[in-house]
Design a protein that fits this description.
Strand content: 35-45%
CATH topology of the largest domain: OB fold (Dihydrolipoamide Acetyltransferase, E2P)
Order of helices and strands: EEEEEHEEEEEHHEEEEHHEEEH
Distance between the termini: 57 Å
Strand order of the largest sheet: 2-3-4-7-6
CATH superfamily of the largest domain: Nucleic acid-binding proteins
Radius of gyration: 26 Å
Number of domains: 3
CATH architecture of the largest domain: Beta Barrel
Number of strands: 17
Length: 368
Amino acid sequence: MAGVLILLGTALLLTGCGRFSGVSGQEPGDPTGEYLPEDAFAGMITDYHFDEDGTLQSLSIHFNGFEDSEEYHPVYDYDLEIRVTEDTRITAEFPGLEPERFLSGDFGKVYIEGTGARENDAEGIVYRADLIHLNEVLTGETAEMDDGTKLRIWTVYHGREYESPEGKRILIVDDTDAPDFVTWPAAELDQKAQEQISKWYESQGTLYDESAELKKVWEEYVRQGKPSSFMEGYLSQTPMVKAYNDRYLFYETELSMPGTQGRSNQVELGAVFEKATGQKVDTLSLFTVAPEEVGPTLIRMAGVKDPALGKELEEAFRPEYILFRDPDFGLVYPPETLPSHPDSYAIWFKYDENIRSILKPEAVPKLH
């Protein structure tokens, strides 16, 4: 199919960032496809159809999902044919979903989304595809749990998804993002400054153990009896600009990790960079008190009355727990950091005269 146009890096988000979810106990939609979109389709490939020369002619896909807004009627369990022509564009956004391999039928399970005119013929509901976007693919690789269960691994546009043998999604992993250079004023940094900040975050690396987190989520799923209502875990790590002034950019690494009972543990870790050079700044150097006194001073200013808690806070203190934001200044301890507080523990201050008395003037962000 020499005429097929192949594009990489083009996102088509018809259904959000995941597959449609099935709805149990519902009757199938109208078999004529009356309530399906006129010009868009989505579903899991169930078969590839080639001509005698080995050229891909069409795909059979299964659509299982719903629209519950007032504008759409529910639709469930459709088998659709997607016809491929020389004008069909094939797109993929991430490594591992090479369109060339897709055209040869080299993949197994692939979830696709696309656009094209819908038509009904004797063979059923057909879409003549203008665009097919490869959204998710079952890699064939597995991750083995301690009990011997092998979880399937899907490659998706944001990273990976782990799926149980029953088809239940267990963990979503968003690959570590690059630092935010889109939010103003980070967007105005010169190339060298951006490179310096990127190098620092590359050296920081991934702050979670993916294998360990996966096993924890799996054990929780098994402990609950493998319910269909189980909320999958989520892993992500994203550096974002939270505040700035004429001299500094105040970043935070937003880390999301699975908790229990469908909860997510959120961790925010601060870092400060020179706007002019992108060089990392020692956070403790932004205070007027001695570096070893920054933690104890902030804890005293917070008015912590419990001596035992005060001791825990001082012993666990790390500079990256200091967060410069607009309009608040915080000292935030991640979950499971303090023996007496399994959840996160946050102390927030206003940039009043007390805080300004221990901060150097150039360390105060612009407040809006």
